[in-house]
Design a protein that fits this description.
37% of the residues lie in helices and 26% in strands. The protein is an alpha+beta fold and 444 residues long. Among the domains are: 97 residues, 2-Layer Sandwich (Dna Ligase, domain 1), CATH 3.30.1490; 156 residues, Nucleotidyltransferase, domain 5, CATH 3.30.420. Helix 4 crosses helix 6 and helix 9 packs antiparallel against helix 11.
Amino acid sequence: MNAYISDMRAMRLRLKAALKRGLVAVLDVGTAKTVCFILKVDPAALDQAMGQGAQHAAFGAMRVVGAGVTQSRGVRLGEINDLEEAQKAIRTALERAEKMAGARVDQVIACLSAARPQSFSSFGEVEIEGDTVSNHDISRALSACAWPAQQAGREVIHSMPVNFTLDSATMAADPRGMVAKYLSVDLMTVSVVTAPLQNLATCVRRCDLELAGVVVAPYAAALSGMIEDEHKLGAACIDLGAGATNISIFLRNHLIYADSVRVGGDHLTSDIATALSMPIQSAERIKTLHGGAVATGLDDRELIEAPYIGAGGASDRRRISRSALIGVIRPRLEEMFEDIRNSLDQAGFDNLPGRRIVLTGGGAQLTGVEEVAQRVLGRTVRIGRPLRIAGLPETASGPDFSSAVGLALYAARPQDELWDFEQVGGFKSRARVANALRWFRDNW
């Protein structure tokens, strides 16, 4: 445990050093594409915004000066399965971003796609030692929280205090300096499968970069795809990626639940290729240009060129109706949203006051996906586009860049985590998982 917290603190220090120097990179290695942004930061403006607690002002203290995008290689279901190929894609995106920025970077914040995140929540309470709450009191309260039971092949990647309670009544975003006798805290912890995390770190090191942070994809996508009121009142972000679909729930500006479903846009492409006997590449093109989730009366008349596998001449050409294409896409899409609904039900999503759902990722660009999601999930649904930050290329403003932009927002103002506080004693063992929304039901 001590070594783990030391590693996390070391990454945090590297991030602070990079921000002080004014240059940091963010890297999103997904199934479909690898994205690298280089951010130029104004340290003075960032310090001023952080001191005032002005979140959006912190975002304004940076600018995208380099952007590199390339097709991913060596990645399946959001996880690296070929180190050499993934490393080549990362180098290509990095070199393009560095060339555009006219500068080299050595610190990067990386996004971990898929890796099967799991959420845990725990509770700790202490009697404060003085008249007002201090950093030391917060550290003691965090140390009183139960730690998730050790699971072979899994590692904690986020551990964030999401709610402070003073004297069992008053809740505070930051209790430091407030008068109370007892301080309690709810700790939100996210663990991931170790192998994908280690493979990502290995690729980053081989590209002569140092990790200044690792963020799970559900968290990153929600940071940019959801607006401030959704973060505060409670909403879910569904990131429809190529290899997997990531799910996150926010409340009071904190991530309180993260999960993933190992189905994504590539599965839709595979279904089209299988059902209609066409090459994968042609199926992807047809899905992108003509795909949809809701049929209309005109779709029977719209004919699409759909080559057979191994077609070589004009006699092998054929056309299919758009309604036939939608008939292949829709069942898989409905199945995907049913899995998402099960995950939200398990988290207790119905207990939130807002219960809005935001769709991001490349799959959110499919025509009619919003209507299908709203019908299956039974909630108000909208398509979320990433927040605009200075210098962001127009080509990177769509829902499929939500995770990459979210990393940039995270770099400007990372959430306080367990390793930002001193460690006081050990942690209690934890035998079972608490419901992610327990603290909301008990304290709202």
